[in-house]
Structures are given as C-alpha cells and as structure tokens.
Amino acid sequence: MAFCRSSLLLRNARGAALRFSCSSRMEGSLTCSDRRRWYSTSEGTTMTASGYHVSSGPSHMKGAVFWETNKPVTFEDFEMPRPKANEVLVKTKACGVCHSDLHVMKGEIPFPTPCVVGHEITGEVVEHGPLSDSKIIERFPVGSQVVGAFIMPCGSCFFCSKARILSYDGQDDLCESFFAHNRAKGTLYDGETRLFLRGSGKPVYMYSMGGLAEYCVVPAHGLTCLPNTLPYTESAVLGCAVFTAYGAMAHAAQVRPGDSVAVIGIGGVGSRSHLPGLKVGRLLIESVKIPYNVNLETYLIRKLVLVGGPLLSYCLIKVAIQIDPICCLQIAKAFGASDIIAVDVQEEKLQKAKMFGATHAINSRKEDAVAKIKEITGGRGVDVAVEALGRPQTFSQCVQSVQDGGKAVMIGLTLSGSKGEVDINHLVRKQIKVIGSYGGRARQDLPKLVKLAEKGTFNLQAAVSRKYKFEEVEEAYKNLDQGSIVGRGVVEIM
Known about the structure:
By secondary structure, this protein is an alpha/beta fold. It folds into two domains: 2-239 and 459-492, Alpha-Beta Complex (Quinone Oxidoreductase, Chain A, domain 1), CATH 3.90.180; 249-436, Rossmann fold (3-Layer(aba) Sandwich). The chain has 18 helices and 21 strands. Strands 5, 7, 8, 11, 12, 20 and 21 form a seven-stranded mixed beta sheet that branches. The chain has a seven-stranded mixed beta sheet with strand order 14-19-18-17-13-15-16, sandwiched between helices. Strands 6-10-9 form a three-stranded mixed beta sheet, with no helix packed on it. Helix 9 packs across helix 11. It comes from Salvia splendens. GO terms for molecular function: oxidoreductase activity; zinc ion binding. Keywords: Metal-binding, Oxidoreductase, Zinc. This is Enoyl reductase (ER) domain-containing protein. Belongs to the zinc-containing alcohol dehydrogenase family.
C-alpha cells in the first residue's frame, strides 16, 4: 500500500517537475521528450517508494581527502554515496576554494579526519533519498541544476522552525542539527557520514557536504535551483562568499537605502594583511574559553547582540568565519547604501573594491582609518561597519568607526582565547550594537541570491579570479594560503 501511494505521489511529482520553474536550466539543453526520459524506468532510472534512483550510474567515485595537518590532500576511491530521506545526491560540477577549508586543513579549527572539505558547490541532481518528501522531488527533479549553501538547514530544529507564523522559514543560520552534527562531528543529521572508502569501507567525514568529490550528498533544504543563464563555475561562490555576505548585510546589519557602510579588511578572513590597531579603552571584553578538544565553530553558533545599556558590564563576543568582503560591497550597493567605504592596506585590493561598489577607499597603512571614515561621513561615523579579518585591532576599529546608535558587525574568525578591546563607556553611552554573523539563511536567501545574480547585481565572472582542475586541489589551497588568489578560486570537477 505504501508503495502504491508513494508511486502515485512520484507520478504526480514527475508532471509537476516538468512545469516547475527551476527546471528552466534543463530546458536550455534538453527537449521536452528528452526531459521526460529522465523519468523513464526503461532508460536506467527507476521509480520506487524510496524516490528516483539512477540505477545505471557508477558504483564508485573519486574524492579529495584531507588526512592530517601538513600532509598533502590525496585522491581516493569512494563507494558511491547514498542519500537518505530528504537528501539529494548531486553530481558535483564546481566547488569553491575557501579559507574555512584552509582553517581545517591547518588545524586552526578542530575537525575529525580523514575528511573531504569543500562547501560551496554547483551540480546536477542524480538521485533522491528513500522516502523523501514529494515536495523535494517536485522541486529538484533528476537532472535539475543546483547550487548549495554551506549551512545546510535541517528544516525541523528549534531555529529552523522559528517564526514560521511570520511567513518566513526561520533562522536557518543557527540550525542546531548543522552545528551539532556536521560542524562538530563531520556527519549529516542522523549522526553518520555518507562517505566511505572503496574496499576498506573506512568512514570519511564531511565538511558541509564534502564538495571536493565527484558526487556529494546534500540535505535538500540547503539547495536551490540554478538557471541555465548562470555558469556552474562562477555560481559556486553564491553558496558561501555571497551567501555569507548577504547574511551579514541583510540580517545582522539590516542595511537600508541611504545607510553609510564601511568594510574593514578587503583581504578577507585569513588575509596576511595587517591593519594597524587603535589605542582605545583598556578594559578587555571577556572572551569565550574553548577547551582544546571541542570544535571551535560549535561554540560560535549563537549571535550575541551587544546593546549598550546601564546594566552592561561585560560582553561575550561571537565572531564568524569565511566571507569575501568584496561581496559585502556589492550587496551594500544593491541595498542602496550611500557612502560605501573599503579599508585595507593593499592598494590592489582597494582598487578592486572600487570596481565592486566602494565609493571611497582608505589605506590604513598610510592614514588613520577611523579618522578618515569620520571625515567622509561629516564627523559622525558610518551607520554600519563590518569587520572581516577577525583581529583585535580591526575589532576596535570597527566599533570606533560607527556613529551613535550604529552597528558593528563581526564576521572575521579569530583564534580561541583572543580578546578584543573596547571602551565600555563608549559602547554604553553611544548605544553601539556589536553583532556577530555566521552566514545566510539558505531557504530564504539562496533563491534571492540566484535572482540577483541573474540580474547582474553580482559580477560573478570578475569575482572568480582563478580556476583549477580537480587534480589541482592541493595547488589551489597552497595559493590560497600564500595569499596569491585575489578574489575567489574555484575547482572545476565536471
């Protein structure tokens, strides 16, 4: 009975899928009859109660495995990963090269090994997990082209379910399942990885979906469809760099038309740049103490909004990881910000910032950044300042750069035990808000970002400065660590 009911749902889903808007990319390469053949049981695809399965596909795949710090990545054979309920198997086309992967590989963020990193992907849907919701099968039919967000919400925890009565999909960026299972343990939300070495069956852990492999399993709530007008390679950055920037500007900063915005550290998280600090109040903000054997990111999943008030005596700071600050500039411009100020010590980065929306550029090696920001804004400071380096010096600059009642948004990762200095009286009397931001909200934000990219709001082609072949993964991360990638690097796996 369950089989018949499921088959009926799948037949209905099949018809709906051909009409669904996200299949527009398929229409660019397949005729209507071709697309129907994706669902024909006689052509290698079977329909069962467990969903669509590509039975004629390969039984194994290649993946790039990180084993331990200071050891090179190796390419290994894996059993073909199998998705479970409400998960999707994606044939990976491209995967971004990101500093948060590098933090794992350098041992700066504790994470189980061996693992496959890579968390911003584009690809093609080839299979659904058993007993997946029919709505997921309708939305992502086999053959759909998709982009994945690095935060993959479960859709059912407290934060994912929060505020549905207000007609939005909750706070996906605080998904409890994602942080408790994936970031803390390298698994998906049943506590198991989907990656196993061929032959030995040894489990390999997943940083997000483990995108540096020929196929990856992604919880469906972390995906959205990609139209045929957007290329696979350049679109990979939508799932992290652009996604994280959008979360910071839309949800944390809540940038409005006419706001003035400063982005401090155009080099981004992990940059070798040094921005001189300022002498401010000597009272230290208390730092979160993190045991050596606990995943740093697990501790840093709560956004703490620090609002000056008479009872404020100390604050706990949450900082986040991985952003391309260039994307912050583009999003600020898209939101209608007036003065958009880029701060860095490298002229090359500052010149690029002007190409992506900055109205002013400040080289803080040559002049006092805070004083210059206030000069530009008529002595007041900016409405929003974004700190993208995760350094005590730039933390202070960020707080000092905002006007009374302004917002200082922290998106840069710092080592555990680091402390930021701030004048508590300044924070209290001026009603400065210090806000941490980790990323965007996949179900809400990723579809919006795809539409903005279609409109040309983001210059994806210019943002991606280096492209690598799959076998060049090790070189890509070496280049990233050396600071030789200006913009974003993407590995092409297709």
